[in-house]
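Hi V.,

Quick status before I head out on leave. The structure for the redesign project is tokenized and pasted below; the design run finished overnight.
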């Protein structure tokens, strides 16, 4: 190894310092863009015909719920979702019956507790959604579908019962 003059950096060290300086500049620029109103994650619901039913900013938790009524049993089921690191997940479900909505609980698949009101809560599923979208068929008047984002509720059934819809996260 050859000695270097005092106060001079090796070329490897100089490259590392330059990389870190650019990275910090990029991080500062990204932070500034977000603070200045950069793109925010929105939940977008569109019909198969392309009609936009919902376009709403996601809350800080990046979570939402689909509330729907089972058409035969006439009970309400809550399907819970989250968006993390660019991926949409099914994170849990609340249902009065263990087997009514098809998710169910078993060893290695989330955790399940019985709530004080008798319903079952399945959590920590973290099931990634294929293609980063959730395709749904909007329920009928007898079995309505409601999207809940933060404290806002969006009734999807009126005017769209039986239609296929796509739920995805986009940035605006």
């Amino acid at each position: 190894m050859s000695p270097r003059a005092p106060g001079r950096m090796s070329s490897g060290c100089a490259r590392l310092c330059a990389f870190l300086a650019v990275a910090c500049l990029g991080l500062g620029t990204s932070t500034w863009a977000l603070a200045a109103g950069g793109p925010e994650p929105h939940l977008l619901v569109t019909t198969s015909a392309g009609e936009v039913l919902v376009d709403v900013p996601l809350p800080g938790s990046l979570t939402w719920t689909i509330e729907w009524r089972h058409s035969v049993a006439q009970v309400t089921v809550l399907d819970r979702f989250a968006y993390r690191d660019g991926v949409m997940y099914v994170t849990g479900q609340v249902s009065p019956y263990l087997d009514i909505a098809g998710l169910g609980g078993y060893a290695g698949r989330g955790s399940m507790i019985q709530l004080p009101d008798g319903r079952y809560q399945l959590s920590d599923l973290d099931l990634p959604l294929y293609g980063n979208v959730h395709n749904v068929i909007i329920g009928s008047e007898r079995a309505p579908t409601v999207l809940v984002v933060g404290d806002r509720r969006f009734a999807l059934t009126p005017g769209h019962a039986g239609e296929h819809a796509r739920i995805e996260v986009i940035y605006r």
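Above is the designed sequence. Confidence is low (pLDDT under 50) at residues 1-34.

G. will cover questions while I'm gone.

Best,
W.
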